[in-house]
């Protein structure tokens, strides 16, 4: 009887151990939902946006006015990581391109997307020289371009509407790249320095929709972020990349009022420093 009792107890404990191991294995097989990180660096009067995808692809949209971007990237990437998978230059104004020249000097860059419009400045000439010397593959942005970045992220180019390579513009903002990044159900709409005329053209083409995060166009200038545009996009969060006490009066109060009226939470690099938002594809969270 005693032997039978010990035998039953032995079977019971073995079954319990296997059950515990099964639960343990199940718990460890559940991975937390992967996170995308979006940052607007505080680099003064200019734009520099940095995205790290859930599978660790790194995307830099513009580079700000100077070498400040190098310190910012150093804070966001490990010491040994000198790889930027994709750079998007929205347009060749110095407050967007000058820092990218420094990035090309120090980082391995996988690919570049830009408008390639003609623009005769020392900063843009140096950018083109460095790009050619580094032999980085460069692609001319045209509306309708679409790419999957890793397993999770879809990148769409919404403007320019035509191939602007080699074209000269009275207002270089007319060659600006507007891009949209989608992860799960969350969308980031990045306007660069797009002005109201470009917003209206996007509305007319029917390519816009609600976005969780809006990178406000042209640093919050009165030239951008029109009411009709906001009524459709209706972002939960609006990020303004702007220099403290800048001489342009950015962001304009009327733009801030329009954003407030639709209930958008406004983040400003001149007041908040580096802005970092994360998402698991289901919701947006502010991170510090």
From TrEMBL:
Chain ranges passing through the membrane: 12-30
Ranges where the Metallo-beta-lactamase domain occurs: 45-244
Keyword entries, A-Z: Membrane, Transmembrane, Transmembrane helix
Any coiled-coil regions, as ranges: none
Entry-linked SUPFAM superfamilies: Metallo-hydrolase/oxidoreductase (SSF56281)
Top-level taxon in the UniProt lineage: Bacteria
Protein name, as recorded: Metallo-beta-lactamase domain-containing protein
